[in-house]
Design a protein that fits this description.
Oligomer: single chain
Structural class: alpha+beta
Helix content: 10-25%
Number of strands: 5
Strand content: 15-25%
Radius of gyration: 14 Å
Largest sheet: 3 strands, antiparallel
Number of helices: 2
Length: 78
């Protein structure tokens, strides 16, 4: 599995002065997506609706609204 491309604007393009520690979205060679964001599992785990679940090896990650909105145009429909 490899990173194929960034999806959306880079942190610098979204206004990060240093380009470090910023949310980001990447498309992977297998068609999956990888997300860099703030770890919020402990904070949000109990908020999951009854029909959602999380495996022990999965984490809830938060990205900014701007990160996802700016990535929207780059996300394939299929």
């Amino acid at each position: 599995m490899k990173i194929v491309r960034r999806v959306g604007a880079s942190p610098r393009e979204r206004g990060s002065a240093t380009g470090q520690s910023c949310p980001d979205i990447f498309e992977l060679s297998d068609g999956s997506f990888a997300v860099i964001g703030r770890e919020a599992t402990k904070e949000l785990d109990w908020e999951l609706p009854p029909d959602a679940s999380r495996a022990d090896y999965e984490r809830i990650v938060v990205i900014t609204r701007e990160t996802l909105v700016r990535a929207k145009a780059d996300i394939p429909d299929t």
